[in-house]
Amino acid sequence: LPLPSPAAMKPKAEGEKIVVGFAQVGTESSWRIAHTKSVLQAAEEAGIELLYENADQSQQRQIEIIRGYIERGVDVIAFSPKTEEGWEDVLKEAKAAGIPVILSDREVQVGDDTLWTAYIGSDFREEGRRAARWLTQQAEAGRSYNVVELQGTPNSAPAAGREIGFKEVIKQDDRFTVLESYAGDFTKARGKALMEEALRRHGRSIHVVYAHNDDMALGAISAIEAYGLMPGKDIMLISVDATKSALKAMSIGKLNFAVECNALLGPQLMKAVKDLAEGKELPMKIITAEGVFSQETAKKALATREY
Ligand code: AHR
Description:
The chain has 10 helices and 12 strands. By secondary structure, the chain is α/β, with parallel strands linked by helices. The strands form 2 sheets. Strands 2-1-3-4-5-11 form a 6-stranded parallel β-sheet, sandwiched between helices. Strand 8 (208-211), helix 7 and strand 9 form a beta-alpha-beta unit. The N and C termini lie far apart (47 Å). Bound molecules: alpha-L-arabinofuranose. Alpha-L-arabinofuranose (AHR) binds next to helix 1 and strand 9.
């Protein structure tokens, strides 16, 4: 018989602190650093004991960290899965130990969805669609546009969703051709290196860069400048995250559009943990509300942007 879903947390004694084990994927981007800070701070504010370890982009390490939390018998495990696949075994172990698992920011693909309790994060496909919708609205009639896509970590939920959503929209518009879709890793250094390669291969025939995150877009901006072109003018750039550095780049005209991906997921995560402790059932998916930024709205938002 299948084990019951560990949707409920084991009861705590009066005054006993809830313990959450958080297995972060890495420190690849400024978004990720803001996400980590948000989780640490929200745990402190909620009076929850947080065990935190960083897997430094190794799925194997992330699995080991989760196994460590299972052995310690934490109340809840939260993690941002590096990739969508490969979690079946460790999630079965968490389920067998009766520990609910909350996915904070990235989803997993497993045959049995009772292996995880809730997902808190973005709708990545919709982010890709938002990027593409803006592009199709900006593009001139009767002109054609060559696009270079700088993707995030291969097989990660945001890279998959942002590619699918973007292509779903632009493939309906014959003004656009995707020249290259490069596999990146959400880092600025890789964004720069991939853009250098794109410029070597395609030079001035590139009209648009769609980067799966701000860090890669910022790396691409330096590559474009080093090549002697003006980012934001000679080549249009669109990215996802909308961090403060991206808004700054938009305010000086080097980045054209940013789709928001909310990194401040800590408070929602801690609320979900407390709800579990009170025996409440969580919705399987808690999707964060997000917006988009044009160069005009970015200027206004800069003063209050937290990360
Ligand atoms: O999973 C969210 C993505 O991961 C962010 O867009 C990116 O910057 C990060 O590292």
